[in-house]
Amino acid sequence: VKMSDFAKDKAAYSLRKRWNVVSPGSHDFRWKEGPGPGHARDSMSTVSYMDEPSQRDQVSRLAVQMENTYQLGPTKHFPVVTVNHILKDVLTNYLQEEEYEPELCRQMTKTISEVIKARVKELMIPRYKLIVIIHIGQLNGQSILIGSRCLWDPKSDTVSSYVFRNSSLFALANVYAVYFE
Question: DSSP readout, 44-76?
Answer without folding.
Answer: EEEEE------HHHHHHHHSPPPPP----S-SS
